[in-house]
């Protein structure tokens, strides 16, 4: 069967290696020239009891040509145990007694292929997953149109590795590779490519290569040599890709690489002062591994110390960054205000997660927007931008650095859990292709008479830093005189400085791209979104044949924002919060009726729900 796109979901216990399996299959698809979009779905518990509903871990990937999202529902499910089958079948209703298959709630389509490990459906397994009968397929009401494919994954893996010398626990951990082999056969993946990928994955653990290659190959041969009554699937390759080298990349890694590229481009040392927090920690891990690139990383004792070390690095002339999530952004707010008052370049990366407080650490939301724009004391403007795909986290991390260094201001980059952990197809750019970054400097003629308050024609203060002879100065967190730079409590001076800092941020609108309308620009209806919802809204707008305006620049907004929005009779703002961007737009573009579509369920949008809502309007 030939398909333009197909959605695959791997699911099982947290210890079953579903994230590794899904990532390997996604990367293999990217190598073969297919677009990908992935959704790792971690349980909230650190490690729930094995075989229980709360411990199910999933990884969903959409692959093919014209991929915008990880897909609403799967065409193929790999369920490693009875609990995984139940969660995928019942979706959000898995914990309700008596719930049965419902196409709206289910994570897979009614004509899906569902591969199950029959060895993980014993009476004990069914009891752990809270089944009431000994026939889970009938109990769940799975329709006959779903192709249930029973495979004894556990026993076949044991047979494959019986002579490997591995203990039973290690052998059982390898059944995900057998399942991956079956899926590679199902999608006509060349097994040599998968083996090459495995050899790279375990290059530092060579003892694991041979057994993993064997069980992967045996899984592939099992599909190829047995009478499995499934139609194999060919997926279209991506069209019109720009020539170059492509890879699969996760959002956090792309963010880290964007920071490194910016430092290389502008000739600054890169410094990250940070504190571990889900789901942002991988940025720190990736940068800490790049000492060979001159990257400096300090894991501070808390969030406040992390951002303060970064501000110190900025004062010393480095490209300074700090990474966090919503709770940490709250803690960093006063220090970010210090960077605003001191007018120092600083990049703050907020990988949003469900809140408030510790909230839902493994789930995604867009609920930090107003905190990023307004969440500091006093009149304290900062630039806010947002990435919209896992791959373009690189682009917007690079852009955050450019804006911060050229405009002497903190820049808050918004990503979220969906982008951070998800992966996408990314073309690796050459450094020469990236736009120039020209950090703000200080004119030679100011030597010996430099003041911290001196500005250029764009209202951006000149940047002198430690060690520059003849440019010695103090920089503080108290209001300063607009000319001399000394402490000032004069009312008129304070108002002048407040307006100067605001004007500096406002003029950034002259240095960013104008807003572009996608899909059917001639429609009467405009969908609006920001950040990580772009793919879902793009797919919905195509289905609705309406227009889409998606924002990556939040504060300031693109110069033509009001002009674009006022062209349309009906404007619907869609976001994963209670209407924060809609609130901001009402203030910035008065007189327009902004309709809203909001979800706050810890998951990305489902395209079909957006389409249903807009049609109902």
Question: What this model shows, in words?
Answer:
The chain has 617 residues and is α/β, with parallel strands linked by helices. It is 35% helix and 20% strand. It has a 7-stranded mixed beta sheet with strand order 11-10-12-13-15-14-20, sandwiched between helices. The longest helix has 17 residues, at 209-225. The mean pLDDT is 94.
Summarize the topology.
Layout (H helix, E strand, L loop, with lengths): L1 E2 L1 E9 L4 H14 L3 E7 L14 E9 L9 E6 L2 H9 L17 E10 L5 H6 L7 H4 L7 E5 L1 H8 L7 H5 L2 H12 L4 H11 L7 H17 L8 E2 L10 E5 H16 L3 E5 L6 H8 L7 E4 L3 H13 L3 E6 L1 H6 L1 H10 L3 E7 L16 H6 L8 E4 L6 H15 L2 E7 H5 L1 E5 L63 H16 L10 E3 L5 E6 L3 H11 L2 E5 L1 E3 L5 H5 L4 E6 L4 H9 L5 E5 L8 H10 L1
Parallel strand pairs: 1-8, 2-5, 5-6, 6-7, 10-11, 10-12, 12-13, 13-15, 14-15, 18-19, 18-21, 21-22
Antiparallel strand pairs: 2-4, 3-4, 9-16, 14-20, 17-19
State the gist of this model.
This protein has 617 residues and is α/β, with parallel strands linked by helices. 35% of the residues lie in helices and 20% in strands.
What brief labels describe this structure?
6-stranded mixed sheet, alpha/beta, 7-stranded mixed sheet, 35% helix, 617 residues
Strand order of the largest sheet: 11-10-12-13-15-14-20
Number of helices: 22
Which percent band covers the strand fraction?
Answer: 15-25%
Quaternary form: single chain
Helical content stands at 25-40%
Q: Determine the mean pLDDT.
A: 94
What integer value in Å does the Rg equal? 26 Å
- From the spread of the alpha carbons, the general shape counts as globular
Spans of at least 5 consecutive residues with low confidence: none
| N-to-C CA distance | 37 Å
Which class of secondary structure composition applies to the elements? alpha/beta
């Amino acid at each position: 069967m030939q398909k333009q796109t197909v959605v695959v979901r791997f699911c099982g216990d947290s210890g079953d290696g579903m994230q590794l399996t899904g990532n390997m299959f996604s990367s293999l698809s990217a190598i073969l020239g297919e677009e990908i979009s992935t959704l790792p779905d971690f349980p909230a518990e650190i490690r729930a009891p094995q075989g229980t509903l709360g411990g199910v871990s999933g990884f969903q990937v959409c692959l093919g040509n014209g991929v915008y999202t990880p897909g609403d529902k799967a065409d193929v499910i790999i369920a490693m145990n009875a609990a995984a089958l139940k969660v995928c079948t019942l979706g959000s209703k898995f914990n309700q007694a008596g719930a049965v298959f419902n196409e709206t709630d289910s994570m897979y389509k009614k004509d899906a292929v569902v591969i199950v490990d029959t060895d993980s459906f014993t009476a004990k397994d069914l009891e752990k997953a809270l089944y009431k009968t000994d026939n889970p397929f009938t109990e769940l009401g799975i329709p006959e149109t779903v192709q249930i494919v029973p495979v004894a994954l556990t026993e076949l893996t044991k047979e494959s590795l019986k002579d490997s010398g591995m203990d039973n626990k290690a052998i059982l951990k390898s059944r995900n590779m057998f399942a991956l082999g079956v899926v590679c056969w199902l999608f006509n993946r060349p097994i040599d490519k998968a083996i090459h990928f495995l050899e790279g994955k375990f290059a530092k653990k060579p003892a694991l290569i041979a057994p993993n290659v064997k069980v992967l190959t045996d899984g592939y041969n099992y599909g190829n040599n047995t009478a499995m009554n499934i139609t194999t699937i060919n997926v279209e390759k991506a069209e019109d890709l720009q020539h170059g080298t492509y890879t699969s990349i996760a959002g956090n890694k792309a963010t880290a690489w964007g920071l490194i590229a910016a430092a290389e481009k502008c000739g600054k040392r890169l410094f990250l002062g940070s504190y571990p927090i889900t789901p942002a920690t991988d940025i720190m891990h990736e940068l800490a591994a790049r000492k060979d690139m001159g990257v400096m990383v300090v894991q501070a004792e808390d969030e406040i110390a992390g951002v303060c070390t970064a501000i110190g690095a900025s004062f010393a002339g480095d490209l300074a960054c700090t990474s966090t999530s919503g709770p940490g952004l709250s803690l960093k707010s006063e220090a970010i205000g210090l960077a605003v008052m001191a007018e120092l370049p600083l990049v703050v990366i907020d990988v949003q997660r469900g809140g408030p407080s510790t909230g839902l650490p493994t789930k995604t939301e867009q609920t930090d927007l107003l905190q990023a724009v307004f969440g500091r004391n006093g009149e304290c403007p900062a630039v806010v931008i947002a990435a919209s795909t896992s791959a373009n986290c690189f682009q917007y991390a690079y852009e955050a650095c450019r804006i911060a260094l050229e405009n002497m201001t903190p820049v808050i980059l918004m990503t979220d859990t969906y982008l951070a952990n998800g992966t996408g197809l990314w073309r690796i750019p050459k450094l020469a292709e990236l736009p120039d970054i020209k950090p703000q400097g200080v004119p030679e003629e100011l030597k010996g008479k430099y003041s911290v308050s001196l500005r250029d024609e764009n209202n951006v203060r000149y940047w002198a830093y430690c060690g520059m002879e003849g440019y010695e100065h103090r920089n503080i967190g108290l209001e300063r005189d607009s000319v001399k730079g000394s402490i000032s409590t004069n009312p008129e001076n304070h108002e002048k400085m407040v307006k100067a800092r605001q004007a500096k941020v406002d003029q950034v609108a002259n240095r960013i791209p104008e807003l572009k309308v996608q899909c059917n620009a001639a429609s009467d209806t405009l969908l609006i979104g920001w950040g990580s919802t772009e793919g879902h809204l793009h797919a919905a707008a195509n289905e609705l044949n309406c227009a889409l305006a998606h924002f990556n620049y939040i504060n300031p907004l693109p110069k033509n924002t009001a002009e674009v929005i006022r062209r349309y009779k009906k404007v619907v703002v869609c976001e994963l919060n209670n209407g924060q961007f809609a609130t901001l737009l009402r203030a910035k573009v008065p007189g327009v009726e902004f309709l809203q579509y909001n979800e706050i369920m810890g998951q990305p949008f489902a395209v079909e729900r957006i389409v249903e809502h807009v049609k109902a309007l």
